Amino acid sequence: MNELLVMAGTIDDATQITKDLNALMVHGVMGLLVTAATITTRWQTKSWVAAATAFVAGVACWYGVANATVFRDKVGEDLAPKAARPAHGQVLVLDQVPGPASGDESEVRR
Questions:
Q1: CB 62, CB 34: distance < 8 Å
Q2: Of the candidates 43, 63, 42, which has an alpha carbon nearest to the alpha carbon of residue 54?
Q3: Which of 62, 66, 94, 106 could make an SS bond with 30 (beta carbons 3.0 to 4.6 A apart)?
Q4: What does the H/E/C string look like for 89-103?
Q5: Rg (Cα) of the chain, in Å, rounded?
Q6: How far apart are CA 98 and CA 37, in angstroms?
Q7: What are the b/e assignments for 22-37, b being 16+ CB within 10 Å?
Q8: Burial of 54 (0-12, 13-18, 19+ CB in 10 A)
């Protein structure tokens, strides 16, 4: 029983580490990338307008990455209406088109 509790604790720890790494990547690394892009744009172009545009574009990308699950779920709801598609595992039976039998050539017109 003790081994089961240790294993459950290990799984919880791994899940928490994964969540922490995800938060670090989304907020820490994206913040550094936006800052680096803004500074690089200002340094290369010597334009505050271009630097501000790079900053706004970087923040927009950062927002998209931070809210990717919300966008994924919203787009999935819009693209797959529930009434239009059969459910997973459902068999769709189509009626056969009436026509001559496969072995009966007398009804085939040439």
A1: yes
A2: 42
A3: 62
A4: CCCCCCCCCCCCCCC
A5: 29
A6: 66
A7: eeeeeeeebeeebeeb
A8: buried
| Mean per-residue pLDDT of the chain | 78
Contact yes or no for 34/52 (Cβ under 8 A) = no
The one-character DSSP state at 108 is -
C-alpha separations of 9 from 6, 12, 17, 47, 82 in Å: 5, 5, 12, 53, 39
Residue 82 half-sphere exposure, CB side, CA atoms within 13 Å? 1
Q: How many CB atoms within 10 Å of residue 66?
A: 13
